[in-house]
Write a structure and sequence with these properties.
Shape: elongated
Number of helices: 11
Strand order of the largest sheet: 1-3-2
Structural class: mainly alpha
Strand content: 5-15%
Largest sheet: 3 strands, antiparallel
Helix content: 55-70%
Mean pLDDT: 82
Number of strands: 6
Length: 258
């Protein structure tokens, strides 16, 4: 298929904008958005450039997003980078997986619906999130301890049930309880409050949440709402998400055994 020079130039302009901003909205960039949405040939060129850069280019409603693949550490984040950003300076793998658990808990609290949209609430307080994290870690650790006496498969001797399943609740709870509490709202990553603050601040910088510090309130953005409804919770992507979670779970088991 031969492309016109104008189509190639238009696709390059769109892709460069996505590289710089990671999203392209109809309201802010109508010309570029319409060029992508109304011309399948330009759309195919942009998607092809995205594939070469290890990215998916997806349109959700009136916004086009650039979504790096899981192993794309150039446009995304590596595990080492996230550990440095989200955990304390001497953070271990347990601290890293705790930070991922915090993010998953936040998503579950906001997106648990079965209707036209999965979103079930408009906001939550930081204190409520902190209580949810403590409760879920405790429940998971207690449930794993109660079921720990079941027969193990060959090669699983010495591992708890939670480690065999890939969810090391007791390890994450240990990392969470090791963080100090500071009612003054410390920003240090060695405190529970500071640990959550840094995670929320990171998510806000990625355009996924709005964190109103003075009110200790968390709101999700249109970007996260669309990503959850159109991508992560879309059954077409279930196997892909499941594979990523299983890989992370396997690493969590190894980290817990160290």
């Amino acid at each position: 298929m031969a492309y016109e020079v104008e189509e190639i130039r238009a696709s390059q302009e769109i892709f460069y904008y996505l590289l710089e901003h990671h999203e392209l909205g109809e309201e802010s960039q109508e010309r570029l958005f319409r060029g992508y949405a109304e011309n399948e040939r330009i759309q195919n060129l942009v998607k092809s450039q995205g594939e070469a850069a290890q990215c998916d280019i997806e349109r959700y409603g009136d916004v086009i997003y650039l979504i790096p693949w899981e192993d794309n550490t150039f446009l995304g984040f590596s595990k080492a980078q996230l550990k440095q950003l989200l955990s304390k300076s001497n953070g271990t793998d347990k601290d890293y997986y705790l930070s991922q658990f915090v993010i998953l808990t936040l998503l579950v609290e906001f997106y648990d619906g079965q209707g036209a949209t999965s979103k079930t609430r408009d906001y939550m307080r930081v204190g409520e999130l902190q209580n949810c994290i403590s409760a879920r870690l405790r429940e998971g650790a207690e449930r794993a301890e109660e079921e720990g006496g079941e027969r193990k498969s060959p090669g699983e001797e010495g591992l708890s049930r939670e480690e065999r399943q890939g969810i090391a609740f007791s390890n994450m709870m240990e990392a969470y309880e090791a963080l100090r509490s500071d009612e003054k709202g410390s920003r240090a990553k060695t405190t529970k409050e500071g640990f959550l603050y840094n995670i929320l601040n990171f998510l806000q910088k990625q355009g996924l949440i709005e964190y109103v510090e003075e009110d200790e309130m968390i709101k999700t953005t249109k970007k996260l709402d669309q990503f959850m409804d159109w991508n992560l919770l879309n059954q077409n992507h279930f196997q892909r998400v499941r594979r990523v979670l299983e890989e992370n779970a396997s690493e969590a088991v190894r980290a817990g055994a160290e």
